[in-house]
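Reviewers of the previous submission asked for a worked example of the structure-prediction workflow described in the proposal, so we include one complete record here. The input consisted solely of the amino acid sequence. No template or homolog information was supplied to the procedure at any stage.
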Amino acid sequence: MDPPLPGSPPLLSLSSGAPTSASLYRSEPLYTSTSSTSTTTTTCKLVDVHGVKVASFSVDGQELICLPQVFELFLKHLVGGLHTVYTKLKRLDIAPVVCTVEQVRVLRGLGAIQPGVNRCKLISRRDFDTLYGDCTSARYDPTNRKPYRAKVTRDSSRSKHLTGTLLRRHSII
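From that input alone, the workflow returned the following structure tokens.
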């Protein structure tokens, strides 16, 4: 087998060719690189968040998780959309960190974000817990939105009278 190209994702399968859960969820970093703009090392690994493995970068000693991935996994059914999440982040005074181009490539390679995505943001686990708590306590149900126009309702006796009048007027009864 040829050695992998520089920058290509690591092989996650064993010699049998079939990936196993042990090879997919390992504690050691999946990717390690040094940014040319700083002297810090950015490391990516899968971490457990609420029982699910999520892509995480260790940047300057702080663990940051992929915001679009945790949105898809935990927040999508709680809020109207990603725009709502960014509005909540602003209200909660949480500033996500913008991914570098290299981090976006790594996240795409892991399947944490969709192939066409070229921008991504990261937040700390503590900030995610704050955001998650806000989303779950808001009692917002996107399927139970108010209608655009309010329906006019009439009391049943008047409605029956009007219906009878209209039917007589049109010679139906």
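The radius of gyration is 26 Å. We consider this example representative of the routine output the project will generate in years two and three.
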